[in-house]
Amino acid sequence: MREKQITFAARQHQLTNINVWTADSQWLAFDLRPSGASFTSQTIERVNVTTGEVEVLYQAHHGAHVGVVTVSPDLPPRYVCIHGPEHPDASWQYDFHHRRGVIIQNGNAMNLDACDITPPFTPGALRGGSHVHVFSADGSRLSFTYNDHVMHEWDSRQDLRNVGIAVPLRAVTPQKQHPREYDGSYFCLLVSRTHAQPLPGSDQINRAYEECWVGDRGYQKPDGSWQRWAIAFIGDTLNTQGEKRPELFIVDLPEALEDYARAARRRWRAASGSYLHRLLACSSVA
After folding, report:
1. What's the pLDDT at 267?
2. Residue 117, by phi and psi: left (phi above 0), alpha (psi -120 to 50) or beta?
3. Nearest CA to 77 among 28, 41, 130?
C-alpha cells in the first residue's frame, strides 16, 4: 500500500480517531486544531482524497470553536462535531462540561444534545458537555462521552466522565431558565454509572470512556438470541489493593425508543428533588 499526501497547506489538519471517511470513500473530514490540547479550530472541513479539493463544511461564530468531527455511515453525509460556547466569558467558556454536539449538513449546524442545568431537569436533556460523537452502524443514533456542569459546580471531584447516547425519539426543548441552556434534536441520556470512590475489587467504576457501538446489528447471546443495541466501553475499577484497573464493560440497550423515555422519566423524577443528583444509566451494565 502506497502513502499519498493529500493536504499541503501550512496549517494543522486534525483527524478524529474514528469515522472520518464519507460513505463513498471520497472525502476525509478534519478540523484545524493545532497540535496539543488547544481547542481553537474555527472550521470543520473536508478534503477529496482523489483531487485534493478542500471544502469548508462549517464556520463557527461569536467566539466559539469546533473540532473532533466524525461522519455518518450514509449518504448524503452528516458530520457531527464538538461545538464550544458562543460569546464565552469568565463564567462560561470551553471546558469538558461546557460544550455540545452539533450535526452539520449543507452548511447548517443543528444541536444534537439539549442542555438544562436548572431544576427541575428535563428528561432527554444533558446538564453539561458531550464529546467525541459517533454514529451507530445504521446512522440512526450516536454515542458520546460526557461531563456534568451541575456536578462540577458542586464539587469538581464529583464530575466523573460517563458515556451517553443520543436516540431519535424526539427533539428536547428545556424551559431555558438559564442563558446557557439550549434545545437539542435528539433525546439524550447516560448509559454508565460512576462512583467517586469505587469499592476495591468490585465492578464499580469512577470513569467510563472509549465507547463504541457493538456490531452492525448488535451481538448474538449464548442462547442464540440477538441483542440489537449495545454499547461497549472501558471503565476504571480498583483492584483489591486499591490500584486502578481498566476493565471492559457492555451495556445492553432497549430496542423500543419509548423505553428510553420511560427510563429518563424515572431518573428525572429522582433528580427533580435533588439539585446534585447525577444522571444515571438507563439499563444495567453486564
Report:
1. 62
2. alpha
3. 28
